[in-house]
Design a protein that fits this description.
The structure holds two protein chains of two kinds. By secondary structure, chain A is mainly beta. Chain A contains no helices and eleven strands. In chain A, strands 2, 4, 5, 9, 10 and 11 form a six-stranded mixed sheet that branches. Chain A starts with a strand and ends with a strand. Chain B is mainly beta. In chain B, strands 2, 4, 5, 6, 9, 10 and 11 form a seven-stranded mixed sheet that branches. Chain B has a four-stranded antiparallel sheet with strand order 1-3-8-7, with no helix packed on it. The termini of chain B are far apart. The mean pLDDT of chain B is 95. The chains are: A mainly beta, B mainly beta.
Chain lengths: 112, 112
């Protein structure tokens, strides 16, 4: 059974204070690891897909990295508009290969 | 560019009532899915479809039915609503099962 654990559950940062969110996973044959951003009252918005260990992707102040056991979402010099819940999900190649398994998310608050 | 459209946005039901949550996408995506999101839990897959006429169960299918008669539409039916089905329901679609999913903005359902 695929599992995803995100930490911390909540994170408060001052504007400009860089940090990282963690996503630990167990999966039978990783087909893809996905990061999403979710704003209150909205559906998740796709950010990145990572497919293999060592892969990195960047978008503005966000950078996602992947190892064989975890992924990090690095936030550099965050702004208040980066406040949201960040979700991590994995897709394996086992019996549930048509499904995404989501973590519970990290709620990020960036204080001006 | 509408993307994934869910209706209604809010709904209150009484225990035992039935209803259909609507989901439509205009991106010609083959893969569509329904999730529920509850406080303190990750998104959980209810049902999914890899194409018109093909549906399958996800992690939490009990109490729900789906059908996929067209590529565009993927309605979710609650057969006899129960308070445990109070949740936020999200529909998502992607070009194929391996591609990032695009989410609608959800239906907030309360069952009294």
């Amino acid at each position: 059974e695929d599992q995803v654990t995100q930490s911390p559950e909540a994170l408060r940062l001052q504007e400009g204070e860089s940090s990282s969110l963690n996503c630990s996973y167990t999966v039978s044959g990783l087909r893809g690891l996905f990061w999403y951003r979710q704003d209150p009252g909205k559906g998740p918005e796709f950010l990145f897909t990572l497919y293999s260990a060592g892969e990195e992707k960047e978008k503005e102040r966000l950078k996602a990295t992947l190892t064989k056991k975890e992924s990090f979402l690095h936030i550099t010099a965050p702004k208040p508009e980066d406040s949201a819940t960040y979700l991590c999900a994995v897709q394996g190649s086992g019996a549930g290969s048509y499904q995404l398994t989501f973590g519970k998310g990290t709620k990020l608050s960036v204080i001006p | 560019n509408a993307g994934v459209t869910q209706t209604p946005k809010f709904q209150v039901l009484k225990t035992g009532q039935s209803m259909t949550l609507q989901c439509a996408q205009d991106m010609n995506h083959e893969y569509m899915s329904w999730y529920r999101q509850d406080p303190g839990m990750g998104l959980r897959l209810i049902h999914y479809s890899v194409g018109a006429g093909i549906t399958d169960q996800g992690e939490v299918p009990n109490g729900y039915n789906v059908s996929r008669s067209t590529t565009e539409d993927f309605p979710l039916r609650l057969l006899s609503a129960a308070p445990s089905q109070t949740s936020v329901y999200f529909c998502a679609s992607s070009r194929t099962v391996n591609q990032p999913q695009h989410f609608g903005d959800g239906t907030r359902l309360s069952i009294l």
